[in-house]
Write a structure and sequence with these properties.
Distance between the termini: 48 Å
Strand order of the largest sheet: 1-2
CATH class: Mainly Alpha
Structural class: mainly alpha
Radius of gyration: 21 Å
Number of helices: 18
Order of helices and strands: HHHHHHHHHHHHHHHEEHHH
Oligomer: single chain
Helix content: over 70%
CATH topology: Hydantoin permease
Number of domains: 1
Number of strands: 2
Largest sheet: 2 strands, antiparallel
Length: about 450
């Protein structure tokens, strides 16, 4: 499965060759598949509600700075590392150092936890899409009053199992269909939103920046966390998908296209949602339930609300399901290759594991209201894992690669002879962990 990234890290005996693992059919296929994997609810659900909670334009400016300065170099790094090792996340970290497998399993575990509640939210989007088709979109309180969260997550797991059994070709086909449809629906809804009474107010909210807000460290932590979330940094997605990238692909070019696509969809999501919010006098700081709790009321009050609800929640489902598939693929690759299981056996093991782990999050939005203290279990996971832990994983994973892997090796994996890319990656990857540790020490002391 490729030679060791460092000379002191022996290859694992009996691992598969790159050919046996399969590859994306082309660079565009990798771009479509990775974009579909990353776009998900991170851009269509999480970005708008965070922008609403943190002041609109100020948050967007901080997010764009984070994407350009830090997130892009780390994205290049993770894709290149996966391509170099040509293995799952655990194998890739093991190739860097003998003890790296422990960190690789930490990353896979992080993705497993995130995917466990992501599947539940994906189930909500499917339930809302079905309700929209039935012309019966309810408030979130009504939707979650029974055991719908549990029922829909079972349906999502069954659909995921079918596509995982079919392998990379099924993911490629789904992604090539999904991305054009997603962009078409987003642009269509933005055009519709531009004709609403709240368009001007949404412009002011999204384009005006309170410069004093940029002095708040919390804003920057949230913005950087969202950048990592948007591009799936530190979660094994980029390493795993990069391990299937074809030999002639140009990693910086492909990654840049994906990052620009992700950012554009996130920004368009804001322009799609907030005009409706302001038109109907809703609260932009509603929080994580912004789409599920406020927009159904907005669609209900609109003359063309029914078809818009179908388009909107259908879009949410497609995006969420693509990211859930990506998370399952990261876990599947590690389980199948590390434990040397047959593909079908590994799929059944992963689906069974996710069924068990998704239960607490699903049950937290049922009459049982499973909670940790006063916080529902799903929200507790997202608050504690979906932000800070992802930042830790991405930053210190980058340091792991950049301090131990020679630049020449990663330059080869990038598919370019330009030292501009590799210099930028190593400056960020090596010194960001040091800067974060220094900032934490100063914070604790003062």
């Amino acid at each position: 499965m490729g030679e060791p990234i460092r000379g002191d890290a022996p290859a694992r005996p009996g691992t598969e060759t790159a050919k046996a693992r399969g590859q994306w059919s082309s660079e565009p296929a990798f771009i479509f598949s990775m974009a579909a994997a990353a776009v998900g609810l991170g851009n269509l659900w999480r970005f708008p509600y965070l922008a609403g909670e943190y002041g609109g334009g100020g948050f967007i400016l901080a997010y764009l700075v984070a994407m350009v300065v830090v997130c892009l170099p780390l994205m290049y790094l993770e894709v290149a590392a996966g391509r170099l090792a040509q293995g799952n996340t655990v194998h890739t970290f093991r190739q860097v150092h003998r003890s790296g497998a422990w960190y690789g399993w930490f990353v896979v575990g992080l993705t497993t936890v995130i995917t466990s509640y992501y599947l539940v939210i994906t189930g909500w989007t499917m339930g809302y899409a079905v309700d929209a088709i039935r012309l019966d979109v309810r408030s979130f309180e009504e939707f979650s009053a029974g055991y719908a969260s549990l029922a829909w997550v079972l349906v999502i797991l069954a659909l995921g199992a079918v596509l995982l059994v079919r392998g990379l070709s099924a993911l490629e086909t789904f992604s090539k269909f999904m991305m054009p449809v997603l962009l078409l629906v987003v642009v269509g809804l933005v055009v519709t939103a531009s004709r609403t009474a709240g368009w001007g107010e949404a412009q002011d909210f999204l384009l005006s920046t309170d410069m004093s807000a940029l002095r708040d460290p919390t804003l920057w932590v949230i913005a950087f966390g969202q950048g990592f979330y948007s591009l799936a940094i530190g979660q094994g997605y980029l390493v795993t998908y990069g391990s299937y990238i074809p030999a002639k692909a140009h990693v910086p070019r492909a990654s840049l296209i994906i990052a620009v696509t992700e950012s554009c969809i996130a920004l368009l999501a804001g322009w799609m949602i907030f005009p409706f919010v302001f038109t109907h006098g809703l609260d932009p700081g509603e929080g994580s339930q912004l789409a599920f709790n406020t927009l159904p009321r907005a669609f209900d009050a609109m003359a063309w609300g029914a078809p818009l609800a179908i388009a909107f929640f259908g879009l949410f489902f497609i995006a969420a399901f693509s990211s859930s598939l990506a998370g399952l693929k990261v876990i599947l690759a590690a389980v199948a290759e590390e434990f040397r299981l047959r593909h079908l056996t590994a799929v059944l093991v992963v689906i069974g594991l996710m069924l068990v782990l998704a239960m607490p999050s699903a049950l937290s939005f049922t009459p049982l209201e499973l909670s940790v203290g006063d916080t529902r279990f799903l929200d507790w996971l997202d608050q504690n894992v979906g932000g800070q832990v992802i930042l830790f994983s991405g930053i210190f994973g980058a340091g792991f690669f950049c301090w131990l892997v020679p630049p020449s090796r990663l330059q080869t994996a990038l598919g370019t002879e330009s030292w501009w890319w590799i210099t930028r990656i190593y400056i960020v990857g090596r010194w960001l962990p040091v800067a974060v540790i220094g900032w934490l020490v100063i914070t604790i002391i003062w």
